[in-house]
Amino acid sequence: MARRRADACYRELGAELRKRRHAAKLTERELGRQTGWSSTKISRIESGHIGLPTVDVFHYLGPCKVYRPQALEMLELCRIADRRLGYWLSPHGEWVNNQLHSLIFHESTAAESVMYEPLLVPGLLQTPEYALAMNTGRSNRSHETISRYAQVRMRRQETLHRPTPARFDFYVHEQALRIPVGGSAVMHEQVLKLVLLSGLPHITIRVVPISAGEKSIFGGAFRLFGFERHDPLAYLDSHAHGVFLEGPELVRPYSELLPDIAAIALNAEDSRKFLAGLASEYDLACTAGSDLVR
Q: What are the pLDDT digits (tens) for 186-212?
C-alpha cells in the first residue's frame, strides 16, 4: 500500500532491504526482472513509501541470496510496521551492537535532533573511556559485550561529523556531569570533549543547572528527531530496549516539554563557560588524587 509519507518503521525496513540489494550487487532493474516488479515499485519499497507483507519481503530477499535465518529481524520489523500502532519497541536499544540498529538509522537520517539527558553524558558525546567505565562495573556483562557497547557509541558519533551534518541540540543536567564515571581523569577528558564539541556550528550543548532545584526536574531521558519530509519521532531509552513514538499524540508531550527545559537551561555561551570550569575542577581533582568534584 502506497503512502505520501513514509512511516519510520517502513523507512528503516526499506533501508535494510536496500543494503541487501547492494551487497548482492543488483540494480533496481535487475532485481525487478527477478521479482517481476517495476523499478519504481522497488524504489518506493526502499524509501518506505510502500509497505510489504512478509511473503513479499522473502520475495525481495530471494534474489539477494538472503534467506530465512538471516531475514528474521527484517521480518519482525515488517510485522511491527504493518501494525501501525504509532509506537514500537526496539529490542536493541543502545546496549547492543546489531546490524539492524534502529537508533543509529533514525539518528543518522534526521535533519535535526534534540536530546535531554538527566543522568548520563549523551551517547553521541561520550569518550571511549567514559563509555567503557560506565559498563565495566556491571557484573552481568562480559568484556566482549562491554567492548561491543563502546563500539556502538563510537559508530553512532560518526553522524556528528558528516560532510553536511544535521542540527544537534543537547540538554544535559548538571548532575549527569558531576557523577564521576570512571573517576576524575575520565571525567576531565569527557568534559573537555563537551567543550570542544560545543564549539561546532551545528552542535549546541546546554546545561540544566542543579541550582534551579525542583524546576530542573523533567523526568527521564528522551530524544526528538525531526525530518524534512516525514513526521517527527521520539525515542525513549531503557536498559535493554528502546521505545520509538511516532503518533502525533504520543510525540507532542515531549515537544511541548522542550520550551520548559530551554527556559531553565543555561544558554550556550554560559554552558560552555560552565563546562570549561568543570573540566578544570576535574583536572585539579586528578592532581590532588581525589575523585570527588562537588
A: 999 999 999 999 999 999 999 999 999
Report pLDDT digits (tens) over 122-143. 999 999 999 888 877 665 666 7
For residue range 219-266, what is the model confidence (pLDDT) as tens digits?
Answer: 999 999 998 888 899 999 876 677 888 888 899 999 999 999 999 999
Same domain flag for 271 and 186: yes
* Residue written as grid cell 563502546: 150
Its sign, for the CA torsion 117, 123, 129, 134, is positive
Do 174 and 254 share a structural domain? Answer: yes
Residue 203's beta-bridge partner residues? 168
Strands (E), the chain: 87-90, 112-117, 167-173, 203-208, 222-226, 233-237, 242-245
Statement to judge: residues 248 and 128 lie in one domain? yes
Are residue 46 and residue 170 in the same domain, yes or no?
Answer: no
Calculate helix-pair angle for 184-197, 128-136, nearest 10 degrees. 140
* Residue 164 half-sphere exposure toward CB, CA atoms < 13 A: 3
| Average pLDDT over every residue of 142-159 | 74
Q: Name, in order, each residue with C-beta under 8 angstroms of 41's C-beta and a sequence gap of 6 or more.
A: 32, 50
